[in-house]
Automatic annotation (TrEMBL):
Residues 28-224 form the Transketolase N-terminal domain. Pfam families: Transketolase_N (PF00456). InterPro entries: THDP-binding, Transketolase_N. This is Transketolase. The lineage of its organism: Bacteria, Bacillati, Actinomycetota, Actinomycetes, Mycobacteriales.
């Protein structure tokens, strides 16, 4: 969570998102993540605008990077960059592109958008932090359909086998997975030794409690949201 009062509140997020226009907004992908992102930055992550390069900071990886508008709105709301940047998002010379760029946007840890990359990258980051004796935690946000990518299978199995207790994965479950069926995601992670559970993706208290859990092994949270229709 940020260490100072953010310039905007949760109720300001719709207006912040609306300031971004253009054909590349991927609005459904963005809106489904808004509540989880707010809880992460407001209640969970140990990071702030004045500590974006602090080695001891928590890391957040937006693996579901093709719909970053909610991410941009939450970062602006917490003072990572001026809210005026939102007005030119997706423009040719804007730092706020259709996929987040870690070299252009303060607070962005990875350049993302190619699905299936965030979780494997987070596993490597967790190993590096563990080797340094760091207490920093890594959170990854993925989509349920993204977990169909085979690159995640090895990462899930490896993290469970190595007991990466500094790793939390949140999946936005809008029932768009090709292989989806009720309870499949939770069962898949639990089988590999993760602490796995499901929450309402709009219930801030439930999301916060799940993300703050530290069970001594990697954590998976399936955040249920409305079914994707377009």
């Amino acid at each position: 969570m940020t260490t100072t009062s953010p310039p905007f509140a949760y109720d300001d997020l719709p207006d912040l998102v609306t300031r971004m226009t253009g054909d590349e907004k991927h609005a459904p992908s963005s809106s489904s993540t808004l509540d989880v992102l707010w809880v992460l930055y407001h209640h969970v992550l140990n990071v702030s605008p004045d500590r974006v390069d602090d080695p001891g900071r928590d890391r957040f990886f937006l693996s579901k990077g093709h719909g970053p508008m909610a991410f941009y709105a939450v970062l602006a709301a917490h003072g990572f960059f001026p809210a005026d940047w939102l007005d030119t998002a997706m423009a040719f010379d804007s730092p706020l592109g259709g996929h987040p760029d870690r070299s252009l946007v303060p607070g962005v840890e990875i350049a993302s958008g190619s699905l299936g990359h965030g979780l494997p990258m987070a596993v490597g980051t967790c190993l590096a932090l563990r080797s340094r004796g760091s207490g920093a935690h890594v959170h990854v946000l993925v989509g349920d359909a993204e977990l169909d990518e085979g690159s995640n299978d090895e990462a899930i199995a490896f993290a469970g086998a190595r007991g990466l207790e500094n790793l939390t994965v949140v999946a936005i479950d809008n029932q768009s997975s090709t292989h989806g069926r009720p309870g499949r995601l939770v069962a898949r992670f639990a089988l590999e030794g993760w602490d796995a559970g499901e929450v309402d993706g709009h219930d801030h208290s439930a999301i916060r409690d799940a993300l703050l859990a530290r069970p001594g092994r990697p954590t998976f949270v399936s955040a249920r949201v409305e079914r994707k229709t377009a």
